[in-house]
Amino acid sequence: VQLQASGGGLVQAGDSLRLSCTASGGAFNTYAIGWFRQAPGKEREWVGDVTSGGRAAYADSVKGRFTISRDNAKNTLYLQIPNLKPEDTAVYYCHVDLPGGRRYWGQGTKVTVSS
User: Residue range 85-100: average pLDDT?
Assistant: First the structure.
C-alpha cells in the first residue's frame, strides 16, 4: 500500500485547510485510517483515527475542531482543519492500518500557520 498526502501549505491563522491522503493498492474500505503530526522540535503526536466502520477518535488537543473523514470510492482519507492556529504548524502524516495490524505511512505534508 502506498499513500500520497497533499494539501499542506503556508496559511494564515484563522484559515482552513483540508489535507488529503490517497491510497493505492489493497482494499481501502477495510482499513482503519488516521493522522499524526509532528511540530518542529517535538515528537510525533497522534491526531485521530477512524475505524473501517466509521468510528472516530481524536486527541484532546484537536477534539471538536479537527475532522477525519474517508471516501472509500476514492481510496482517500481527509483531515479537515478549520480556524488554523500557529500551534497547528507541523508536518502531518497519514496512515492506514490493515486488518492484520500492519501500518503504512504517507510521506507527510507540511502545514505552516502564520500569525
Answer: 96
